[in-house]
Amino acid sequence: MDVTFINRSRHVGQSYISSVFTTLWAFFTVIPFVYRIRPKLILINGPGTCIPIVIASLLLSILFLIRRPKIVFVESICRVQSLSLTGKILQYLPVNILVQWPQLTERYPKTQYIGRLV
């Protein structure tokens, strides 16, 4: 079993401006990983670390270097009233966003209510 460490896109308390640079760094370091693995399914949750993986997989598929994987984002159960920043970003990409509270589907029509996973 291989373990790969991925750079964080944003550290707790880090400013949004400086997080642009750390996200770009994470994106460029994750491209070879996504290319090597060639995932068929990417199941992600919560942290912004998943954003570079999603963007890298979509970019590599646009360039016909890998087949486009199915991407599923499961929002945290503690997100009752609004999506996390990651969820808000991913709603503009071809990603299935699953939420655990029905009222989120009313506010964010691109989401799908799946019930609670606890």
UniProtKB/TrEMBL annotation:
Subcellular compartments: Endoplasmic reticulum membrane
InterPro entries reported in the protein's UniProt record: Oligosacch_biosynth_Alg14
Phosphoprotein keyword on record: no
Molecular function terms from GO: N-acetylglucosaminyldiphosphodolichol N-acetylglucosaminyltransferase activity
UniProt keyword RNA-binding present: no
Gene3D superfamilies reported in the protein's UniProt record: Glycogen Phosphorylase B
A biological process term (GO) from this entry: dolichol-linked oligosaccharide biosynthetic process
Transmembrane segments: 16-35, 41-66
Record keywords, A-Z: Endoplasmic reticulum, Membrane, Transmembrane, Transmembrane helix
Protein's membrane topology: Single-pass membrane protein
Gene Ontology cellular-component annotations: UDP-N-acetylglucosamine transferase complex
Record-stated family: Belongs to the ALG14 family.
Name the record gives this protein: UDP-N-acetylglucosamine transferase subunit ALG14
